[in-house]
């Protein structure tokens, strides 16, 4: 594992812990709102700009302007609902996007990433498997969005903060690792791909493969 990857993982863990503490002890503070939302919106802005996705770029800019106005106004009455909207909304949006890629004759979301990683060559077995992985992520995103709402309504705020800040990244990591182990056990013919290569493939704008399933 490279030093750069280790530093990145360390930064994610540190940010998750700090976010949990801020939500527990300073959730209503304007500076805390900026600290919690700013580091999430800026990478989204950069990714949308790099991929030339104008709807996402417009939405992210609007969210940044709203964040600036909220901080300038001194916060919100019940900022916890804003945190819920961010956590559940992101997962719901991703679920809808991945589900939409399963429609039609083209490639699913994960199939498109694999298409880039393997030089535009996907065997029928690879395409079937990556389509199933796309369905897995659809289930995860919708399930996490629903769980976020349920915990927010029925459990203490500390439990929701634990779910949003610590358990969510852990769950994502478990899905990634579990899928990786299953992939190379069931399909040893798949070329081994590094995490860095997968991230680069996700960031690239691919116009060579049609959307859909």
TrEMBL record:
Tagged with keyword Metal-binding: no
Keyword Transcription: no
TM stretches of this protein: 5-25, 31-49, 56-76, 82-102, 136-157, 163-182
Superkingdom of source: Bacteria
Coiled-coil region: none
Keywords for the protein's UniProt record, in alphabetical order: Membrane, Transmembrane, Transmembrane helix
Protein's name according to its UniProt entry: Transmembrane protein
Native source organism of the sequence: Pseudaquabacterium terrae
């Amino acid at each position: 594992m490279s030093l750069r990857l280790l530093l990145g993982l360390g930064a994610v863990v540190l940010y998750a812990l700090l976010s949990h503490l801020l939500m527990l002890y300073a959730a209503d503070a304007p500076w805390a709102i900026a600290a919690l939302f700013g580091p999430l919106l800026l990478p989204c802005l950069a990714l949308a700009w790099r991929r030339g996705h104008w709807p996402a770029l417009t939405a992210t800019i609007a969210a940044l302007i709203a964040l600036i106005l909220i901080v300038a106004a001194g916060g919100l009455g019940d900022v916890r609902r804003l945190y819920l909207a961010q956590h559940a909304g992101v997962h719901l949006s991703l679920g809808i996007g991945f589900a939409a890629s399963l429609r039609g004759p083209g490639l699913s979301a994960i199939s498109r990433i694999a298409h880039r990683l393997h030089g535009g060559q996907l065997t029928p077995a690879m395409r079937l498997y990556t389509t199933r992985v796309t369905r897995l992520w659809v289930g995860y995103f919708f399930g996490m969005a629903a769980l976020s709402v349920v915990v927010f309504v029925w459990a203490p705020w500390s439990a929701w903060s634990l779910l949003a800040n610590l358990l969510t990244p852990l769950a994502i990591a478990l899905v990634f690792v579990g899928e990786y182990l299953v992939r190379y056990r069931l399909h040893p013919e798949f070329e081994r791909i590094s995490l860095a290569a997968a991230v680069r493939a996700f960031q690239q704008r691919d116009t060579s493969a049609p959307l859909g399933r």
